Amino acid sequence: MFGLIIPLSLFTVAACLLIYLYFTKIYRKRRPGEAPVAKGHFLWGNGEEFNKNAVQFLLKCGKDLGDVFTIRLLNQCLTIVMDPHSYEAFSKEKNFDFNPIQEQVNWNVFSFVLKKPKAMVKIAGKTVRGPAMDKAMDNVTTEAGLSKNNNTSDMSKEWSEDGLRSLCRKTIFNAIFYTLFGREDNADFNPTIFCNEFEVYHKYFNYMWLGMPRSWFPAATKALGRLVLQPSSDELLCRDDASEYLKTMVAFMKSNDQNEMDIKAHNLVYLHVNYNTFKVAFWALYHILQQREGFQALRQEIDEILERKRQSNNPDEIILLDQADVEGMKTLDSICLEAFRVSSGVFMVRYVTEDTKFTTSEGKEHIFRKGDRAAIYPPAIHNNPEIFEDPEEYKHDRFKDKKFYRNGREIKNPILSFGSLCPGRRMAMLQLKWYMLAMVNRLDIELLPGEKAEYAVEYYGHEILPPRKDVNVRMRLRPNCRQVQLTV
Ligand code: HEM
């Protein structure tokens, strides 16, 4: 008798708990003025469709429900804005707050809290757009072995084979790493170890971000243990060759009594944002190798600008290009923007601090509920066939002298990979362009037959998607290529 009563009462308690959770945390009645709600599972909402293919799911919701609708991922409701014309109003809305989101990432993924986040972002913006950018650009080109007379590591005039991602790691990732931290001899603190551990850590990024405890993922805990083996803050501050940006942040955190672990965790966030440049560089190179016309068009543009800028007939002259030259190269610009369009995976999410009436560009009003999240999903906009013809195709000249429209009106910001808040946008773009220019100028490089890269869509939520696996290339130093240097 008692044997039956105990399981029965356990079952009743569990059922009551579920019903209680359902009605208090999940069940939700649409209020007047709120956006339509996408149908989903009564417990986990739209999680399944979202995980399967977030872009297709949101595009379908947009078709069925209009430009603004609410989805639920477990107990988190997100009201999504699909209209690219509303991006500016969305970014300016003061009740849509990014602060709780960055707190969630910093705490759940990197285990620290910034004591003065707003002041820090302000300084970050100033530093990264000022002299720190010039120094970072100078370093990154030298460190990548791509400037002046440097020989790109491991490369010779004879054809050799490597993975493309592996090549990007040896060039742009290493360059970014040394540009941030400077050089030192500690065996545990080098770009190879960091890139490997970052790869492991990133696998669990989305789970940790959503709040699952790190202890559930022993591999992530182990990777983090290696990633915090960094020089102390005092040591970093003494390094002449460490990034000005990093040093400014370290000094700011120290002056606000943040401890060594907080500072190391913040250094990892900085490496994490820069790691995006490495990921997007892979895609930009991959696509122009796959679509040779893109490669040829870029090489022609490079040869033309070098011909225009040379001062003599001396083949050994180092031809100087400045930032404006690089930023003015239209084929290069289009190749890079298109790489961002196709590889972007990020959500632009804000916490709704008050019930807020939001008006779309079409003049439609919706109430966003306090406590929900408001979001724009750039990949869904980047893959909308109403905006981009054949969105699944990479077209190297898609952005060359082109404008994009929706509902008959030109879109001011068709590429949203940096959200609205990223202070590193210009620097990251310039680093990517300079890297592409240097690689295509210096190397003959080809994909080996049959090599094809796929986006790892399970990483949706990361700023840039990684590839599922590396692809093999063959390469050699280009005979008689011009030497070029970026002046900063
Ligand atoms: C390819 C490279 C990069 C990509 C794709 C990228 C993307 C993003 C995105 C999507 C956000 C969220 C913005 C929003 O929701 O409005 C963000 C924020 C941020 N990014 Fe970047 N980023 C890149 C490089 C960098 C670099 C080089 C820096 C260096 C300074 C940087 C610093 C930051 C900071 C500090 C924030 C937080 C801003 C805040 O709290 O207000 N990013 N980035």
TrEMBL record:
InterPro entries associated with the record: CYP450_sterol_14alpha_dmase, Cyt_P450, Cyt_P450_CYP7A1-type, Cyt_P450_E_grp-IV, Cyt_P450_sf
Keywords assigned: Endoplasmic reticulum, Heme, Iron, Lipid metabolism, Membrane, Metal-binding, Oxidoreductase, Steroid metabolism, Transmembrane, Transmembrane helix
Gene Ontology cellular-component terms listed: endoplasmic reticulum membrane
Binding site for heme: 422
Localization annotation: Endoplasmic reticulum membrane
An annotated GO BP: cholesterol homeostasis
Cofactor: heme
Gene3D superfamilies: Cytochrome P450
Domain of life the protein comes from: Eukaryota
Major place of residence: endoplasmic reticulum
Pathway: Lipid metabolism; bile acid biosynthesis
Single GO MF descriptor: steroid hydroxylase activity
Pfam families: p450
Membrane-spanning residues: 6-23
Binding annotation for substrate: 114, 276, 373
Annotated family: Belongs to the cytochrome P450 family.
Protein name: 25-hydroxycholesterol 7-alpha-hydroxylase-like
Native organism taxonomy: Eukaryota, Metazoa, Spiralia, Lophotrochozoa, Brachiopoda
